[in-house]
User: Fold N-(5'-phosphoribosyl)anthranilate isomerase from Eiseniibacteriota bacterium.
Amino acid sequence: MWIKICCIQNEDEARLAIRHGADAIGLVSRMPSGPGVISDERIAEIVGSVDGSVETFLLTSRLSPEDIATQVDMTKASAVQLCDRLSAADYPTLRGLLPATRLIQVVHVEGEDSRAAALELEPHVDGLLLDTGRPNATVRELGGTGRTHDWSVSRRIVESATKPVYLAGGLRAENVANAIRSVRPSGVDLCSGVRVEGALDETRLRAFVAAARAGKGFRDRSS
Assistant:
């Protein structure tokens, strides 16, 4: 089971996540709202502190391919999580600028329309991440809300997609096994579900990883 622990704040949290089985860590750059934001300089330092066996995800809300490529060049992250939607013409440009970097597009599951949006975006990226946000709200939410969404919609996206689809949004030890059985994703991703007062909590982390590893119905398309 592929597991990504997001909102990593420092090297100690990165080491803790990796020690308990994280396959990837998420590092949040500037966002319009939400938890876990750190500077690009800190992201680069944390990326530099881990070995290449763990994927490092740069979460970005930037919309310019050139700006995103500059962030990646500075931070050296191995993957980019696009928390906002680029214009159609910008995806090929971004791919050309970052040929060796995994591009993962976030799709905020708000209803049945999300399936069409996901399948429209899928050809441009290496995978999709289904999250719970409100990108069109007055204060835009692009992730880290701690809320679940309609997993039946996510399941239909997984069934239609040909690339890896990861599930996020309100996951925790108590519901992750059911989420995996319901959606059959390629992996799971979370932030708040393993934190206490903002800090990564070892007890919650251990419980989540154990529950995720035990989850049935896993669909292995993570590579």
Notes: The CA atoms of residues 122 and 181 lie 23 Å apart. Residues 202-214 form the longest helix (13 residues).
